[in-house]
Design brief:
The complex is a heterodimer of chains A (114) and B (974). Chain A contains 4 helices and 3 strands; from the N terminus they run H-E-H-H-E-E-H. By secondary structure, chain A is α+β, with helices and mostly antiparallel strands. Chain A has a single domain, classed as Orthogonal Bundle (Arc Repressor Mutant, subunit A), CATH 1.10.10. The termini of chain A are far apart. Chain B has 4 domains: 73 residues, no CATH class; 241 residues, no CATH class; 315 residues, no CATH class; 219 residues, no CATH class. Chain B contains 29 helices and 23 strands. In chain B, helix 6 packs antiparallel against helix 15 and helix 12 packs antiparallel against helix 17. Chain B starts with a helix and ends with a helix. The chains are: A alpha+beta (114), B alpha+beta (974). At the A-B interface, helix 2 and helix 3 of A face helix 2 and helix 4 of B.
Chain lengths: 114, 974
């Protein structure tokens, strides 16, 4: 696994947080999730099919997400992922942890650069 | 449009997912790639480039599988589209089972009724099969029973023999022939045939008067050859078995006890071995107790001890007078067994033994057959050859098995009906599954799993019922004295295999039709709400309920057949019970004694009988006392031929013969029609004639044995004396007079015995004089036609006493006291009342009547449950329709008619089919019937009426519910 670039390492650690936060507001399907990640990161973070869906299924398996086939008029059916009650709690604690981490990092880096 | 799915599926393949899950993932991923592809096209990429970029999302060949593996490996496969085809058969079955259990728990009412119904059906079958197994299928309790063969002979003509006895061990397959041979022939085969590693012979068991261990009692002793135990491979529990040395006439008399008798009579005391007992008047030593498993060789013939053939002259020897049963080749009375040498087939052994047999029979001294008689010898496996009493019980058991098979079919139809009604209710569930892509085969499998699950639970409960049922039948059997069935009944692996087999067969049988029908759902209407109550689906529902109707019709038809059978058997028993036997069987105590076994002479016997008669008569409550050689209706009888003086030469009258004591006719209340009754003088005269006859016979035997010796009374002088004695006075019954003495006054007529053996002229004895005519009585069996009987004064032999008293059972202890005071070593046998005696000979009829009426009632109840279930379901399903009808002004009465009419129509169709089937099948039990035809119209009509009445009840409850339908509620229904 020599392709461990900083970006990849970053993804591995935080992909769950990204996905959970993206479906917090409303249920989304897999393609939509991958597009949003790519857009909002300005193209720096990208999930391919081969890595996104195993992750989705794992989250679903843990009971944090719930997938449901939805057929909308004029569209083909898609599987939408919704945040479960448990997922919402996990997201909250992960966000808290992330923010504390960011604050900590900022303090360190600001102190060094000041 | 590019095809994404093959690309995805190829990458998923290594995961070996269930096809449901695989398709689901492929759908989702394909949609993703599709979206990506369209987006790329929209951004101006060429189709080829868009495709390449999209497919790159899958990132090589194995990344997807690697990512999915940890997630999917323990994916909990909740069945989203239950019944969708799975790859893994067993995981599918487990899934089916889990789901099935959930479904059954969800409808406890249905589940309870179905399980109980199945438990009854399976339990009844298991119980009866347990009996069939115990009586007919269990191997005989010897080592390697397959190696053991029994000898049978057959011929076209009768052999010329001095004596020929058959103790009911074999089935007579040929007109002439059985499995009795002489002891010399047995010894010849034993010394000449090389095919056998061992030979054995046995005969009996015989009733023997055993004393020296508490009160004297009658026990059953089997004569066996010395090699009996070694050939059979039977060991002793304690002590030693009999050996070849015990066969020698100089050997000290020894016996081996059966385990059961040792427990019963010696209380398992090990000291019994070594003790001596008296058998009749011979003292013998007990040397061993046989293995507990070795109860008896021929089924249904229990025995108490084994004695070597060397005792044959002293124990029960008197029965055979002076004939030498051990060395006379013309006395056939023992059953021969051979154990095949390893590697020798039955056919090879038979060829060898048959050669010896033909040689001995045709060219021996003396020859027994002419060559045109074609005497033949066959060897049968002991298991098949020694059938004994089973031939008496086997037909009853087979008929019972057929009846319970019918019960199981009814139960299956019943549960199938319930399942069908339920699968109609589950229509929507099934339609959803089909819509989600479930395969029909898989749905059928799911539904079958549910029904097999039901039948497994039913089967388990059925086994419990069977244990109880076997117990109940055993009690029924043991309540009747002298039952022919004394087999240890215990389930074994055959019973287990049978039950498991019928349980699965049942589950598949009742589950298949509803499952096939259930999986054939029309999706569109089923998925609509309230589909079942819409008139638009009436045609659809109508089609479904034709199968439901058919199942009810089948149940009714099957139960009609069972009920008709039961009705015929019950009426047979009733007919037999209401036969007038020609005497009054109430309030009579019967018991047997045999003073000859204790060494009494004829004269002593006579004195003992009249002494006992007087003392019994003096007992309080005794009305009158008599005795006879056989008790009436005991199943035993003797017969002979007489020549009436005025009849043409060689025209003999065949008649039953019964020797009776004084007051026999008044005690049995048989009416006198003409002439007079026996008096004491008649007995004295008969005794004198009998004594003269015996003296002549004894002298003739002696002269034959040693022709040169001179004896005090020469045979010719004794012959003269015998011929000049007074004719024996006798009484004939009405049937005798009617048959042989038409339009003649029988009183005073003289007759003589038919000639014995080859003599051409009637025996020149003093003959008989008819002194009276009495009313007809049944003799041996109730079923037999009233036959001619002659009654003689009883002047020798064992006897059965008849005591008429107000409460006969209360006299038993007094009677025992009197008998033991009057004579030592005199055991009482067969103490019973005359009505018990009749019950005993009607044993099979009673068993059949009870079993069949129990099962008939069961069949009726099951059919009614089926009918009730169907109609209840109908009413519930049509609540809305009934409400509309009522709202439109239908009378409640009309609704009642609607529901009841439907039920009764089904019942009538079922009854008609059942009666037609009954007309066809009842002839199979016609040999068991008495006093009515197998197609007895009264029985058929009674069954039809009974069924219709009970069915009306079953229809009425759901019909009343329909009648009480409130239109407002009904229209809001669902």
């Amino acid at each position: 696994m020599d392709q461990t670039t900083p970006q990849v390492a970053w993804k591995k650690g935080n992909a769950e947080l990204l996905i959970l936060s993206l479906v917090e507001a409303r249920p989304r399907h897999g393609y939509e999730i991958s597009k949003l990640i790519e857009q909002r990161s300005g193209g720096t973070v990208r999930f391919h099919v081969a890595s996104l869906y195993p992750l989705l299924y794992r989250l679903e398996r843990r009971g944090w997400l719930q997938g449901r086939w939805v057929e909308k008029s004029g569209q083909r059916r898609r599987r939408y992922y919704r945040l479960t009650r448990q997922g919402r709690r996990v997201l909250a604690s992960q966000l808290r942890g992330w923010r504390e981490f960011v604050v900590g990092i900022n303090r360190i880096t600001e102190a060094e650069n000041a | 449009m590019p095809e994404w799915k093959p690309e995805i599926l190829r990458r998923l393949a290594p995961l070996k997912l269930s096809s449901v899950r695989e398709t689901e993932i492929a759908d989702e991923l394909a949609q993703h790639l599709e979206d990506r592809y369209h987006e790329l096209l929209a951004s101006g990429q060429s189709e080829a480039a868009a495709f390449r970029i999209s497919i790159d999302e899958l990132e090589g060949e194995d990344l997807l599988a690697r990512g999915l593996r940890p997630v999917e490996s323990d994916w909990h496969r909740e069945p989203i589209a239950m019944g969708k085809d799975g790859d893994d058969f067993f995981s599918g079955i487990l899934q089916d089972l889990r789901y099935g259990m959930r479904m059954l728990r969800r409808s406890p009412g249905f589940t309870t009724v179905a399980i109980l119904t199945l438990a009854l059906g399976i339990g009844a079958n298991t119980a009866i099969f347990t009996y069939i197994d115990a009586v007919l299928l269990r191997p005989i309790p010897v080592k390697d029973p397959r190696q053991l063969v029994v000898f049978n002979w057959s011929a076209h003509g009768h052999p010329d023999l001095h004596g020929h006895s058959d103790y009911g061990d074999c089935a007579n397959q040929a007109d002439i022939g059985d499995c009795s041979f002489s002891v010399p022939f047995f010894k010849t085969v034993r010394s000449q045939a090389q095919a056998f590693s061992g030979m054995a012979a046995f005969a009996g068991p015989f009733p023997v008067d055993l004393s020296g261990n508490g009160a004297a009692s009658m026990v059953r002793g089997l004569y066996v050859s010395g090699d009996f135990f070694s050939t059979l491979g039977v060991n002793t529990f304690i002590g030693r078995p009999l050996a070849l040395s015990d066969d020698s006439s100089s050997a000290p008399p020894v016996i081996v006890l059966s385990y059961a008798y040792w427990v019963r009579a010696f209380g398992e005391a090990p000291s019994a071995v070594g003790r001596t007992v008296r058998l009749d008047s011979t003292t013998a030593t007990i040397v061993g107790v046989a293995d507990p498993n070795f109860t008896n060789l021929t089924p249904g013939k229990p025995l108490d001890f084994f004695m070597p053939f060397s005792l044959a002259d002293t124990v029960r020897g008197k029965w055979y007078r002076n004939q030498d049963r051990l060395s006379d080749p013309a006395n056939w009375w023992v059953v021969m067994l051979g154990r095949l040498k390893p590697g020798v087939s039955t056919v090879q052994a038979q060829v060898a033994a048959a050669t010896i047999f033909r040689n001995e029979m045709l060219h021996g001294a003396p020859p027994f057959f002419k060559s045109e008689d074609a005497p033949a010898l066959t060897l049968l496996p002991a298991q098949a050859g020694l059938i004994g009493e089973t031939r008496q019980i086997a037909p009853a058991l087979y008929i019972a098995m057929i009846i319970v098979a019918f019960i199981l079919l009814i139960a299956c139809a019943n549960v199938a009906g319930l399942t069908l009604a339920r699968s109609a209710a589950r229509q929507k569930e099934i339609a959803v599954r089909l819509a989600l892509g479930a395969a029909r085969e898989r749905l059928v499998r799911q539904l079958l799993t549910e029904s097999v699950l039901l039948s497994l639970v039913g089967g388990a409960l059925g086994v419990l019922l069977a244990v109880w049922g076997v117990d109940a039948i055993s009690k029924l059997l043991s309540n009747s004295p002298g039952t022919p069935l004394q087999t240890i009944v215990a389930p074994d692996w055959r019973v287990l295999a049978f039950t498991i087999a019928i349980t699965f067969a049942t589950g598949i049988l009742f589950g298949l039709a509803p499952a096939l029908r259930g999986s054939r759902v029309d999706l569109t209407p089923s998925l609509k709400e309230n589909a079942s109550s819409l008139p638009a689906t009436a045609a659809h529902a109508g089609r479904r309920f034709r199968l439901g109707d058919a199942l009810v019709v089948a149940q009714v038809a099957l139960s009609v057949v069972v009920l008709i059978g039961a009705g015929l058997l019950v009426r047979t028993l009733h007919n037999l019970h209401s036969i007038n036997p020609g005497f009054d069987p109430q309030n009579i105590l019967l018991f047997g004694i045999d003073p000859h076994l204790a060494g009494y002479t004829d004269q002593q016997t006579q004195q003992l009988y009249s002494n006992l008669q007087q003392r019994f008569a003096a007992l309080p409550g005794v009305i009158s006392v008599s005795y006879s050689e056989d008790a009436l209706l005991s199943g035993g009888w003797s017969a002979g031929s007489v020549h009436i003086d005025s009849a043409p030469e060689k025209e003999y009258a065949n008649t039953g013969k019964l020797a009776v004591g004084l007051n026999f006719f008044s005690t049995m209340r048989i009416p006198m029609l003409a002439g007079r009754n026996f008096t004491s003088a008649d007995f004295a005269s008969a005794a004198a004639t009998n004594a003269a006859g015996k003296a002549r016979d004894a002298a003739a035997e002696k002269a034959k044995a040693s022709p040169s010796a001179s004896t005090p009374g020469s045979p010719t002088a004794l012959d003269e004396a015998y011929r000049r004695s007074a004719p024996v006075p006798l009484i004939v019954n009405e049937a005798f007079a009617r048959t042989y003495l038409v339009k003649r006054n029988p009183i005073g007529l003289h007759m003589s015995d038919a000639p014995r053996g080859d003599a051409e002229v009637p025996d020149p004895g003093p003959g008989y004089t008819i002194i009276g005519v009495f009313g007809d009585t049944k003799f041996a069996q109730l079923r037999r036609k009233t036959a001619p009987i002659i009654f003689l004064p009883l002047v020798s032999n064992g006897t059965h006493f008849e005591l008429r008293a107000a409460s006969p059972r209360a006299l038993v202890n007094n009677v025992r006291e009197i008998v033991s005071e009057a004579g030592d070593n005199l055991p009482l046998t067969d103490v019973r009342t005359q009505t018990e005696q009749i019950d005993q000979i009607l044993f099979q009829e009673r068993l059949m009547a009870r079993l069949s009426s129990f099962f008939g009632a069961l069949a009726l109840v099951l059919a009614c449950i089926g009918l009730y279930g169907l109609l209840s379901y109908e009413v519930a399903r049509r609540t809305r329709e009934l409400g509309i009808r009522m709202a439109l002004g239908a009378q409640r009465r009309a609704l009642l008619r609607l529901v009841v009419g439907h039920g009764i129509l089904l019942v009538l169709i079922g009854a008609a089919i059942g009666i037609a089937a009954g007309l066809g099948v009842t002839r199979f039990i016609s040999s068991m019937l008495y006093g009515l035809d197998a197609n007895d119209p009264v029985t058929f009509a009674a069954v039809a009426i009974l069924l219709t009445l009970v069915a009306l009840g079953a229809c009425y409850i759901p019909a009343r519910r329909a009648m009480r339908t409130d239109p407002i509620v009904a229209l809001h229904y669902e």
